[in-house]
């Protein structure tokens, strides 16, 4: 029981760190783009813009909601939530040094989670009940599938090399190569 609680706490902390890391990577990207365009970047809030991601989050959550009249309301709003859940679920597969969690078929779980992301794009385009959104969703669907097929072929070549689907073995195999 205690190990399950420990697992949940570690997973939630890692998800929290990932989301804060993404916020600060966005800050870095906006700052670099500001220097490239020869303009001041997002340095308005706090020292050198350190509080800018938190200001953006507050602005995002306090903005006015848009409610399309003819959309399938629940499906329209829960498909991005499901996509976020799937992308955060992939972070379970990180091979920790302590061997805390180890999937024997971790690579197949990764491919399954990323493949389910295709449905969130398709359902988001379909549920808005707009022809343009549906066409945009189908275009994004085709592009996502084409990227996933090439990614799967690349990962299968590593599976043939390592002879395992476990991502811990992928980590251990790197000791023998540059």
The sequence of SSEs as H and E is: HHHHHH
Largest sheet: none
**Could you say how many structural domains there are in total?**
2
Number of strands: 0
Provide the helix percentage. 55-70%
Sheet-strand content, in percent, reads under 5%
What is the arithmetic mean of pLDDT?
83
Q: Catalogue the unreliable spans.
A: none
Note the total helix count: 6
Broad shape: globular
Describe the structure.
The chain is mainly α. It has two domains: 1-63, no CATH class; 68-177. The chain contains six helices and no strands. The protein has helices at residues 2-36, 52-61, 73-89, 106-127, 131-162, 167-173. Helix 3 runs antiparallel to helix 4 (106-127) and helix 4 runs antiparallel to helix 5 (131-162). The protein is globular and about 50 Å long. The mean pLDDT is 83. It catalyses: a ubiquinone + NADH + 5 H(+)(in) = a ubiquinol + NAD(+) + 4 H(+)(out). The chain crosses the membrane at residues 6-25, 74-94, 106-127, 147-172. Keywords: Membrane, Mitochondrion, NAD, Transmembrane, Transmembrane helix, Transport, Ubiquinone. One of its GO terms (biological process) is aerobic respiration. One of its GO terms (cellular component) is mitochondrial inner membrane.
